[in-house]
Write a structure and sequence with these properties.
Number of helices: 5
Number of strands: 6
Structural class: alpha+beta
Distance between the termini: 208 Å
């Protein structure tokens, strides 16, 4: 006995014509066809935007690398300029130390040459030699004054340890204590600063003198009875 197959339910599988018609309807309504449920196929516009973003990033990276290279070169040039400046300053400092007294020495050479001429002059006698030495001394004094080298007052002044150097003390009843009574060698200022202190002898009270007692050099003598006759 031959079995009959069960009738196939036609609603289980829609006809191919119906599927094609639905897809065409979706396309006509502006919907993109989907390969699978929930996934959208990227279109040409999205691909172009992605390529533009990558190209922009590459351009930015290249520009930054160029700026970094320029900054590096600028730093190297600045370092080289700094080294050259440091070397030039060191050389100028060395030259200044070597030639700082150039002007001063030129003046001294002129005085030295005058001394040589005075000694080399024929028929030198005491008088002409003295005149020559006085002329050179005047020239030397003028040179010191021009360089602001001035003598320190000493003789008769009150002893000042900041500008006087005491070599000895002598008893004196004619001067106040610590008065400069003798000058061994002159002292000099350089622009109001002590260049060389004056070497001096200062006074002190005689032994046994009463404190505060001072003798007057010009005190008149008391006449004696013999003188009044």
């Amino acid at each position: 006995m031959k079995k009959e197959s069960a009738p196939v339910d036609q609603e289980m599988e829609p006809p191919k014509e119906e599927n094609a018609a639905k897809k065409n309807k979706q396309t006509a309504e502006g919907e993109e066809p989907r390969e699978s449920a929930g996934e959208k196929i990227p279109g040409p516009q999205e691909g172009r935007e992605e390529n533009d973003a990558v190209r922009q990033l590459r351009e930015d990276l290249a520009r930054k690398e160029k700026e970094l290279e320029e900054s590096k070169n600028q730093m190297l040039r600045l370092r080289a300029d700094t080294d050259n400046f440091r070397k030039r300053i060191a050389k100028e400092k060395s030259d200044f130390a070597l030639f700082a007294n150039e002007k001063l020495l030129k003046e001294l050479i002129g005085i030295y040459q005058n001394l040589e001429r005075a000694l080399a002059a024929p028929d030198v006698n005491i008088k002409s030699l003295k005149e020559g030495v006085e002329m050179i001394l005047k020239q030397f004094t003028s040179f010191l004054e021009k360089e602001k080298v001035l003598p320190i007052p000493a003789l008769g002044e009150k002893f000042d340890p900041s500008k006087h150097e005491a070599l000895a003390q002598v008893e004196s009843d004619k001067h106040e204590e610590n008065t400069v009574v003798e000058e061994y060698s002159k002292g000099y200022f350089l622009h109001e600063r002590v260049l060389l202190p004056a070497r001096v002898v200062i006074s002190k009270k005689p032994a046994g003198a009463a404190p505060g007692a001072e003798a007057s050099e010009d005190k008149p003598e008391t006449p004696t009875p013999a003188d009044s006759k």
